[in-house]
From TrEMBL, chains A, B:
Keyword Signal tagged: no
Keyword Plastid recorded: no
InterPro entries tied to this protein: CRISPR_associated_Cas2, Virulence_VapD/CRISPR_Cas2
GO MF term list: hydrolase activity; metal ion binding; RNA endonuclease activity
The name this protein goes by in its record: CRISPR-associated endoribonuclease Cas2
Pfam families listed in its UniProt record: CRISPR_Cas2
NCBIfam families found in the cross-reference section: cas2
Stated role: CRISPR (clustered regularly interspaced short palindromic repeat), is an adaptive immune system that provides protection against mobile genetic elements (viruses, transposable elements and conjugative plasmids). CRISPR clusters contain sequences complementary to antecedent mobile elements and target invading nucleic acids. CRISPR clusters are transcribed and processed into CRISPR RNA (crRNA). Functions as a ssRNA-specific endoribonuclease. Involved in the integration of spacer DNA into the CRISPR cassette.
Family of this protein: Belongs to the CRISPR-associated endoribonuclease Cas2 protein family.
GO BP field: defense response to virus; maintenance of CRISPR repeat elements
Family annotation (Gene3D superfamilies): 3.30.70.240
């Protein structure tokens, strides 16, 4: 199934910047970064649970926001992209 | 149907900052901002087409990225959120 992961991590301090990098690094192990804070991951149920636990252990739930969208198995027709495709380094630095 | 809209707009110049504000302002007319560059919009097919045309007329497809995810009508069980809910002003300024 395709699971879309979107996140907002507060980067007002060093700890937040580290959390942001860690979230991106974890997601890269499971899927494709499609936008700055958006990952598309093809996961089975157990992988989804594992990744969710890892990400929840990284973020600060009082400051950060983490969203999961389950698009199921037949997702090809549910996703549309327009515009440029950025290439990303896992550390969250946008290469332009 | 629930349509998720995610975008990355290049804000390296004034024009990009204006595009970012316009995209957010347009999306606010159709739905709920859930993260910095993520909107959840409840749309019928014609509204979806209309909004898509408007957003495509705003972004610069050589620099910006715009993604649509159709989660259908039975979306409640497909969406999970963890962490803080930021409140946003339509102009794209994150109020923290």
């Amino acid at each position: 199934m395709l699971v879309l992961i979107t996140y907002d991590v507060s980067t007002q301090d060093g700890a937040g910047k580290r959390r942001l990098r860690k979230v991106a690094k974890e997601c890269v192990n499971y899927g494709q970064r499609v936008q700055n804070s958006v990952f598309e991951c093809i996961l089975d149920a157990s992988q989804a649970l594992l990744l969710k636990d890892k990400l929840l252990s990284i973020i600060d739930e009082t400051q950060d926001s983490l969203r999961f969208y389950n698009l199921g198995n037949n997702y090809e027709t549910k996703v549309e992209h327009y515009g440029a495709k950025e290439s990303y380094k896992a550390e969250g630095v946008l290469m332009v």
